[in-house]
Specification:
two-stranded antiparallel ribbon; mainly alpha
């Protein structure tokens, strides 16, 4: 499984999320200190990044499935790295908001292209397990970078140093990907490499009125999984964005956010490692169900306990839950798609996550501004609980009925 190309793409994925998460928890502080932004403004501006990533991913699956994957990956990754330099311009809230919003497009395309290439270079018999381990790169980057970012900020009192480090790490990931070798540019539709029925093949290629069908951009068969995932991502958008300010203002934990992400990611990695065997055995729905049940308890802890215990109980339970849940849900999308639709499957998975996170950031900002942090945390728990209920009521059986034989 750990062949040279998979390892390179894995490291490049780590670089994406290291550079991304290095700045993510600090941006609310940056906007407050540099521009005097209120919490509602922070939510609106930061959600713009997610919105553009979402729209980019709607088209990224089709682009990755149609054009040379290596070229798409390198162009998008290069742009993703260069946008970090845009944060150094500073100047005004408007300029920052434009740069931050536009940065979402190359991020969205890069994550789709990189994960699709990772699936391409994995042996088919280890694919489900490999998808799970691929996510460890996300978790490792998420674990290390917020702590490093907060340490740099306290040591230098300079956001520019953090933006430069993000650029440097993203640039390293780009150069690593220039050495990846991919056997085929993009899977071509054929009887040999697709499991779809004749009617599905017709739907896949049909063009009506000069416009591509919706299922070329989103895996329509996975609409239920996508809606569920958006509900599960919603609370993460609230907590990941406001944890730094909440810990500092309400709990007096100046370094609380860095420790929170460290604990969260350590539990994510532990959970992914222990869940790999179940994925290898094909117990995808089982892993998803177990992860959701653990995570929803974590969000309940955050809503009920407004103290050190609530914060870190959430970090532990959310890490253990998402570590089982996320690779399982990504496998659900992949298992619903024929081989030549891997890019669309990955784009659908990431688009659904982005939609939920973006709505969480936006709604969370409004709730905090008008009511309180605690109101936002109860909203987070309620939406997550709805997603879990939807899985057990509909999504699980629908997935087991529709998944393709491999």
């Amino acid at each position: 499984m750990w062949n040279v190309n998979y390892t390179k793409v894995w490291v490049a994925n780590f670089m994406i999320f290291f550079s991304f998460m290095l700045v993510m928890p600090l941006l609310p502080l940056y906007m407050t200190e540099e521009f005097g932004a209120g919490k509602h403004t922070i939510g609106v501006v930061l959600s713009g990044y997610t919105v553009t990533a979402l729209f980019a991913r709607l088209f990224s699956g089709y682009i990755v499935d149609t054009f040379n994957r290596r070229t798409v990956l390198l162009v998008s990754y290069g742009l993703f790295a260069c946008f970090f330099l845009g944060y150094l311009i500073g100047g005004s809230m408007i300029l920052f908001a434009i740069v931050r919003t536009l940065h979402g497009a190359p991020f969205g395309t890069t994550t789709v292209a990189n994960s699709t290439v990772a699936i391409d270079v994995l042996p088919s018999e280890r694919r489900a397990e490999g998808i799970g381990y691929y996510g460890l790169a996300n978790n490792l980057g998420t674990a290390i970078s917020p702590t490093i970012g907060l340490f740099l900020y306290e040591a230098t009192d300079s956001f520019k140093a953090i933006f430069l480090l993000s650029f440097f790490m993203a640039a390293m990931g780009f150069f690593i990907n220039t050495t990846v070798k991919i056997k085929s540019a993009a899977p071509k539709p054929s009887a040999a490499n697709t499991s779809e029925s004749p009617s599905e093949g017709l739907n896949r290629s049909k063009v009506k009125g000069g416009l591509m069908r919706l299922d070329r951009f989103f895996l329509v068969k996975g609409w239920g999984v996508g809606l569920m995932l958006a509900a599960l991502a919603f609370p993460y958008g609230i907590i990941s964005t406001y944890i730094a300010i909440y810990a500092k203002e309400q709990l007096g934990l100046a370094k609380g956010a860095g420790l929170y992400f460290l604990v969260l990611s350590a539990c994510l990695m532990l959970s992914r490692l222990t869940g790999g065997k179940s994925l290898r055995q094909g117990r995808v729905a089982h892993n998803a169900a177990m992860g959701m049940c653990i995570s929803v308890v974590g969000y309940l802890c955050f809503a009920v306990f407004h103290n050190f215990f609530g914060v870190f109980a959430n970090a532990v339970l959310l890490g253990l839950g998402n570590g089982h849940m996320m690779p399982a849900i990504q496998n659900m999308f992949v298992n619903l798609a024929p081989n030549n639709r891997r890019g669309t499957a990955n784009a659908s998975f990431l688009t659904s996550w982005d939609l939920g996170v973006g709505l969480g950031v936006l709604v969370g900002g409004i709730a905090v501004e008008l009511y309180s942090y605690y109101a936002a945390f109860w909203i987070a728990f309620a939406v997550n609980a709805l997603g879990v209920a939807f899985f057990f009521a509909y999504v699980r059986n629908d997935y087991l009925r529709k998944k393709l034989a491999r």
